[in-house]
Design a protein that fits this description.
It is an enzyme of class 1 (oxidoreductase). It comes from Sporosarcina thermotolerans. One of its GO terms (cellular component) is cytosol. This is Catalase. This protein has 4 domains: 43 residues, no CATH class; 304 residues, Catalase HpII,  Chain A, domain 1 (Beta Barrel), CATH 2.40.180.10; 79 residues, Catalase, four-helical domain (Hemocyanin, N-terminal domain), CATH 1.20.1370.20; 142 residues, Class I glutamine amidotransferase (GATase) domain (Rossmann fold), CATH 3.40.50. Helices cover 28% and strands 16% of the residues. It contains 18 helices and 18 strands. The strands form 3 sheets. Strands 1, 2, 3, 4, 5, 6, 7, 8, 9 and 10 form a 10-stranded antiparallel beta sheet that branches. The radius of gyration is 28 Å and the shape is globular.
């Protein structure tokens, strides 16, 4: 199946055909004689209102910006395809999940939640992971996040949560941050947030890249098969490269050095033809087992532990084409959970139910009325026919006198389709009960899974969570709110709450943690795959280097798919002692150690040798503090020895490794972080 939009090369060619060598016109097609001067009453006289070209040009410019999303404003996206690797016909009648090998065009938008459109990529935040599948039965939108749960259980609380986490209204501070009074006041007084706050304080909230970030559908949906039998499901998207994160200090510095870090990473990897791939699967629960767990499967603040309900993988997602225009595609894409196809249906998850209203309502405001589905990025690839007419920005020119159902003047077309003909029929769930505003008692346990998450973390991961709590709660001005937070999270772990209390200047908690000893290894990033592919190494180099040594190492990096930047005192070429030439594409001023996954310290000579050595030492010190691997060439050892770095985990020295150095260095790069490096005592 082909997506309605042309690939980028075809779009560029069509743009040339439509525009190159053509005469400028107004939007009405009138040829323009002067685009430099407005119409005036005399050369120095006032501008005349009758200058229709001026008014059209200025009016369009004034309206170039549409309202940014209230949440998920900072987004970036790419095109790709979904390939079915395992038929799900047994479980769902959705056509795009029937035939192994079938491919469906997709569009994925990644985003942060809290910040404005101009905020930084690497802030501590939830990341949106929204996928639009352009299927032959219509668009299916899986509007998820990189965290499998959410802050609240009922959508009626969503405006409250967003108001609390956004910049405080009296001073519009802080931007793209949850480290402030109103968010933590909300958390302490709405304790259903406990589990999600554990995830938000974890490394999951500062991903290394969109390509190394897990995705989740968050809500409980249904698969419905051809026989009308249903299963409860949760969607999972797993990155090929594993799930990896930044460290907090590194993330903060990247926000200043390169606020576009994540979008640049995705754009450049797709432009270079690198594989950007994810697996997709579902957890499934039989309807008869709905109430067999110690959590409510409709509660959006709960996971289904994978050790209890395994993920069944069925497909592959590949991103292989960047957008041609960020506004037209990334900003105008209208994701909506209500866009489903036969064989996929909703459940009574109260957060999902509210989102089904909210997304459509938002798009009516942002995209100028009810015809946003006609915007190219939102159009389905299958034919569509209905009696909807008119409204703002209508693009299709409807013909004929009939725009209603049922009718005889047009042979009762368009007509409806039965279940057997592919019509969407809602799952016939039996519903009964009193009309009431209440929450099920099965939604009342807020701490057991928060404790499960804590139990599942490694020692370094727990340290990161503790530090994140101390940083965030330490930014809260209200001592009362800080105390409430400590008293809340003692329910998760006494040691965690005590550490927070001691650091933020409030009383130690008196409560006890919940009695949960279980863990879920799938929640720890220590169990994720690791590859060197597309990781970035900075080669720190001056003149007089050993060319054959450097060439062998760099070739090994390239062979393993590692990206390499040659960093030196200046741009341009550089000569080694043996006549080997390298080309520097970065300088110490135009890049930063936080932008690399690893360093290769070659050293050498420079015009300003003192500053050259100082710059390299700074790069080494920063990478070392962030637990990154460092390779050291024979000519780089004198500078390395002047740094704070010590030989140990993740440090590969050429003079010691000998001929094994390139392979040992690749192995260290693959590991990515060396948490057993005690940077505070060495």
């Amino acid at each position: 199946m082909e997506r309605g939009n042309n690939p980028k090369e075809e779009q560029l060619e069509q743009f040339k055909v439509n525009n190159y060598g053509k005469k400028m016109t107004t939007n009405q097609g009138l040829k323009v004689s002067d685009d430099e001067n407005s119409l005036k009453a005399g050369v120095r006289g006032p501008t005349l209102l009758e200058d229709f070209h001026l008014r059209e040009k200025i009016t369009h410019f004034d309206h170039e910006r549409i309202p940014e999303r209230v949440v998920h404003a900072r987004g970036f996206a790419a095109h790709g395809e979904f390939e079915l690797l395992r038929s799900m016909k047994e479980f769902t009648r959705a056509k795009f999940l029937q035939d192994v090998g079938s491919k469906t065009p997709i569009f994925i938008r990644f985003s942060t939640v809290v910040g404005s459109k101009g905020s930084a990529d690497t802030v501590r935040d939830v990341r949106g992971f929204a996928i639009k599948f352009y299927t032959e039965e219509g668009n299916f939108d899986l509007v998820g996040n990189n965290i499998p749960i959410f802050f609240i259980q009922d959508a009626i609380k969503f405006p409250d949560f967003v108001h609390a986490v956004k910049p405080e209204p009296h001073n519009e501070i802080p931007q793209a941050s949850s480290a402030h009074d109103t968010l933590w006041d909300f958390v302490a007084n709405n304790q259903e947030t406990a589990h999600m706050m554990m995830w938000l304080m974890s490394d999951r909230a500062i991903p290394r890249s969109f390509r190394m970030m897990q995705g989740f559908g968050v809500h409980t949906f249904r698969f419905v098969n051809e026989d009308g039998k249903a299963k409860f499901i949760k969607f999972h998207i797993k990155p090929l490269l594993g799930v990896h994160s930044l460290v907090w200090d590194e993330a903060q510095k990247i926000a200043g050095k390169d606020p576009d870090f994540h979008r640049r990473d995705l754009w450049e990897n797709i432009e270079h033809g690198n594989v950007v791939e994810y697996g997709i699967g579902v957890q499934m629960i039989d309807e008869k087992d709905e109430f067999m767990f110690d959590f409510d499967i409709l509660d959006a603040t709960k996971i289904w532990p994978e050790e209890i309900v395994p993920v069944q993988m069925f497909g592959k997602i590949t991103l292989d084409r960047n957008v041609s225009n960020v506004f037209a595609e990334t900003e105008q894409v209208a994701m909506h959970l209500g866009n489903i196809v036969p064989g996929i249906d909703f459940t009574n998850d109260p957060l999902l139910q509210g989102r089904l209203f909210s997304y459509l309502d938002t798009q009516l405001l942002r995209l100028g009325g009810p015809n946003f589905a006609e915007i190219p990025i939102n159009r389905p690839v299958c034919p569509f026919h209905n009696n909807q007419r008119d409204g703002f920005s209508r693009q299709r020119i409807d013909v004929g006198q009939v725009a209603y159902h049922k009718n005889s003047l047009a042979g009762n077309t368009p007509s409806t389709s039965s279940w057997k003909e592919g019509g969407f029929v809602h799952y016939a769930e039996k519903v009964e009960g009193r009309v009431i505003q209440a929450r099920s008692d099965s939604f009342q346990d807020h701490f057991s899974q928060a404790r499960l998450f804590w139990n599942s973390m490694t020692k370094p991961e727990k340290e990161h969570i503790t530090d994140a709590f101390i940083f965030e709660v330490g930014k809260v001005n209200s001592a009362d709110v800080r105390q409430q937070v400590v008293d809340m999270f003692v329910n998760v772990d006494v040691g965690l709450a005590t550490a927070i209390a001691d650091a933020v200047g409030v009383n130690r908690p008196k409560g006890q943690q919940v009695n949960v000893t279980a863990s879920s290894p799938a929640l720890s990033q220590s169990n994720t795959p690791r590859y060197p592919y597309t990781l970035r190494v900075g080669v720190l180099i001056g003149s007089g280097f050993n060319g054959n040594e450097v060439k062998a190492v760099v070739n090994t990096l390239f062979e393993n798919g590692v990206a390499v930047d040659i960093v030196g005192e200046h741009l341009g070429s550089l000569m080694g002692a043996d006549g080997v030439k390298v080309v520097l594409n970065k300088t110490f001023l135009t890049t930063s150690p936080v932008l690399f996954d690893s360093l290769y310290v070659v050293g050498g000579n420079a015009k300003n040798q003192a500053k050259f050595k100082s710059d390299i030492e700074e790069f080494i010190n920063e990478a070392y503090r962030h637990y990154k691997p460092i390779g050291v060439a024979s000519t780089g050892e004198p500078i390395f020895n002047q740094s704070i770095a010590k030989i140990g985990p993740g440090i590969v020295i050429a003079s010691q490794a000998g001929a094994n150095f390139p392979a040992d260095f690749i192995q260290a790069i693959t590991q990515q972080r060396f948490w057993d490096r005690n940077i505070y005592t060495e």
